[in-house]
Amino acid sequence: MKYFFFTIFFSPVILFSQANITGNIESTFQFLNNDSIIGATQPDQKGLINSYMNVFYTQGKFKAGLRVESYLPRIQGYPNRFDGTGIGMRYVGYANDLVDVTLGTFYEQFGSGLALRAYEDRALGYDNLLDGMRLIVRPKRGVVLKGVYGYQRLSFQQGKLIYGEGIVRGVDGEINLNEAVKKLEDFPLTMVFGTSFVSKYQVDNDPDLILPKNVGAYGARAKFRYKNVTLDGEYIIKEQDPSNDNSKIYNYGHASVINLSYTKKGLGILLSGKSVDNMSYRSDRSKDLQDVLINYLPSLNKTHTYNLVSTLYPYATQLLGEVAFQGDILYTFKKGTKIGGKYGTSINFNVSTTYQPIKHTSGINPLDSSGVTYTSRPFDKSDSLYWRDINVNVTKKINKNLSFIFSYFNITINNDVAKISNDSKGIISSHVGVIETAYRINKTNSIRTELQGMFVEKENGLIKDKGNWATILVEYSISPSYFFSFMDQYNYGNPLESKRTHYPIITCGYIKDATRFTVSYGRQRAGLFCVGGVCRFVPANNGLTFSFTQSF
Predict the structure, then answer these.
(1) Stated pTM of the model
(2) Residues contacting residue 465 through CB under 8 Å, at least 6 positions apart
């Protein structure tokens, strides 16, 4: 079968001289050591490697692509469902102005993803692609119709794709009225409407319950834009879906997302809200963690990049229920003003909160055979806090060579819900300060530094969780090819003196056009790595990491 696909994909290269071939290569190698201080262990193989190569081919209206993956074995922190070498993605397709059809594996998203999102995030070790058929039809300007049908990728074992038990089917339609209706072309209000329906099928193999074999999720969305103001929202209902996630209750689920933004030169404002209840939607009801999730529930909190803020207390979206809000303001003081100075000054203020939703049980008979255990309404929140993040960033350029970013973060997280630490219970509150400095020495040499401090609030005079942390980062760049950095994360405030540990790491790299080599050596703290509310656990390690990337 592998040779068949190689023939399918690469024979057109020989037949057509005007073929367009693009792609990329990525490889990460680790050599790890034992480190009893941080609990890092050396695997039996000592060396670990993840490698990928994507090849995309187009010739006129024909398209094809594949990805070869190799885990020999997988690097630490990747799920155990990654193993071996083989083809992890492959497709053929045809596209013209009317239709775009794909057979094989593909990624797709309906709306904001509340009903369907098949995507890959290599940093998380996450890939829930669909394998089957996708058809996109554009019958007229401004109208897009989509249909998908396939199995989801569950794992990659011994170089072969392993699928979830259920099959996923879905249709989506979207219309931009200003493009579709000629009379509305110059109308100042832009109007876009969409609707989605997704269904999964899985056999009922439960000896005790009658489980629905077909479970649908459906809803609608809209987007309006008038001058500088944009309003968009989506609402999805999920039918009864008893699963391991929800303890096999028969409640319906629902999810809502709404965003209001205003932008003009020097000012940006974003207000967002999200409400979720019982929205774990998988093609296999018996799975957990991040396996075969059909939909995606975006997190309503700012994505942080600073070491202490992003790695110590990240927040993962709660599939079974949460009500979240976010406000974000970015303002730039004009050049030449007292605050703006010669180069202007930018201030970004952001607040995000997440609460437990209210689940009403009045009028619900626990002995009722319906299996419905409560009722809920969108944006009906309790006062039980899951997460709160208040942060402000001030960016100031002093002269053409020197600039600063001053940041403050106040992060509060409910560890009973997030379960990010085994050393604490209840609410953990922290204050983080960061000073980032960038200085250009000359045309080719520059240096950047970060000083970070995290101060965890005490409870009844006792140190909470692992106490206070500090991080220092120094990065030196020689443009356009070389960079060197040193970072040390230090848990100086741990209540146990023996655990007041340094996590130093040295990194250097070389960049030449589309080629990049990076080598690092040092310690990595155990913890959660999160992107967009989706997280994976990364164990502690001590050793060498070498990575190589190439685009073509």
Answers:
(1) 0.90
(2) 415, 421, 423, 424, 428, 456
